Amino acid sequence: MTEPDRMTYREILADDRFHYGAEIVTSRGFSPVPSQSKLAGFAQDLLDHPSIDWVSVTDNPGGVAMLPPDWLAGLFTEHRERVVLHLTCKDMNRNGLESAAWRYASEGFDNLLAITGDYPTGGFAGTAEPAFDLESVGLITLLRSMNEGLRVPGRRGALETLPATNFFIGCVVSPFKRHERELMPQYFKLVQKIAAGAQWVIPQLGYDMRKFHEIKLLLDSRGLPVPIVGNVYVLTGFVAKMFHGGKLAGCVVSDELLATCQKYAAGDDKGRKFFHELAAKQLAVFKGLGFAAGYLGGLAKAETFGRIIELAESFGSDDWRDFLPDICYSVADEFFLFEHDPKTGMSDPSRINPEYMKSIARPGRSKHVNLNYRTSRLVHKLAFDRGHNLYPLMTRLFKRLDRSGNPGILGRLSYWIEKLSKHIGYGCEDCGDCSLPDCAYLCPNTACSKGTRNGPCGGSRDGRCELDDKDCLWARAYERLKHYGESETMLDRPPIIHNAALKHTSAWVNTYLDRDHYAAKHPDDGSSQGHTE
């Protein structure tokens, strides 16, 4: 039970009124008396504040080791239904994530935000090796399966159904992308996350209200009435400079906003009045646009958040219309999906970017559509497409070569040819559960730092990977697929969850013998994903 007269997080997002929440970032290290620590005091102040309806606890943001979110939330079990826990994929494999989810459910923490997570930036005696066994779509799929009653092998081999959880699953989208090839895959992945089981959405950080508005317009256009929580980080001069420099993946401050922040930060109050007013105006715009709630983060005290909320509530009902055009800090040549009126800042849901529509109808040439990609598509169509007449023949051939998992000389020769050709052509790492066709013939294990098979993470910047060592796989895949008129449906498929048991086995054999994620889904076995072509 929660304390009297305070709504649960589920009730908050279903309520007609606009509500406010706040973020808590845990710390590295511990206190001998946890309940008396500064962190616990901050959490208590937020939970007690009459204007703050819920709190959200992060999971190792920035890829740095910190106290787990449920440790802090466990100090305030009476508020558990007003607490959201972040759960990221960077530090645990799927078993660790499932174990953590069972622990959260057992402790009564059902509000979870499923995130792929930042690439680790440090660790004991060096930088940590990330997990990314699942990413956000896979995690959402796992949590939804637990809500439905996860089916697992029992001790005697038969499947048994575990008790159903009651997770309220949230997801993240990153609209603050400069290029079309980055932004559109973000939007497609958001739709995919909702199809996988996400029940509410929170965007990553930026300071252009038109980008936030686009998320709502996108979901409305798809008939997806999913509540959106507007994200506001209370800036300082230091934080603005950090976001502008890309020091925290997915958080964007433009050149114009940085210059403005530096100007105000040089004042006597270090810009506090400007920064607090900017945050309050953002909250007012979210409320005016019909968002379910606003979410405050930053290096501030509970009473500071309270004053910002009080200021937001003091504005007139239509003042947000005047604020919106002023909070349009976009980066140079930024792509927008919807056209907008520069006077009002409002986007028109009926006016899709005309240049985008033209490019969909007549896509231009792309440097990413090369001979290797064209050849790969042709070979796949002839030999790996289940609708092609050659597929049954190849299936019979590989059944003979495999001989029930014990390949002879010809089988080993075929595997050697497969490994060599795929390593030369794609940098293949021999995972055995190949997603080349899913990723426009770009290997997710070599071309993506997080190995994502279900669309992009939110960490790219100007089309580059979060690590800035290569172009984003999904930006490249988007351009390849767009050339063939397939970009709009690039993620219209069941979630892909690879099977690590197939590593260092023939992906060709695994495809033809229905062992990989392409296998047709059997009604008596919930382990396979379903064929995606």
List keywords for this structure.
533 residues; alpha/beta; two-stranded antiparallel ribbon; 12 strands
Question: How would you sum up this structure, described in words?
Answer:
This protein is an alpha/beta fold. Among the domains are: 1-173; 371-512, no CATH class. The protein is built from 19 helices and twelve strands. The protein has helices at 9-14, 38-48, 69-73, 94-107, 136-148, 180-196, 209-221, 237-244, 255-265, 272-289, 302-314, 319-323, 354-361, 371-383, 390-402, 409-426, 444-447, 473-483, 507-512, and strands at residues 19-24, 54-57, 83-88, 111-115, 151-153, 159-161, 168-173, 200-203, 229-233, 293-297, 338-340, 347-352. The strands form three sheets. An eight-stranded parallel β-sheet has the order 8-7-4-3-2-1-10-9. A two-stranded antiparallel sheet has the order 5-6. A hairpin with a 6-residue loop joins strand 11 and strand 12 (347-352). Helix 5 (136-148) packs parallel to helix 6, helix 6 crosses helix 18 (473-483) and helix 8 (237-244) runs antiparallel to helix 9 (255-265). It is globular and about 75 Å long. It starts with 8 loop residues before the first helix and ends in a 21-residue tail after the last helix.
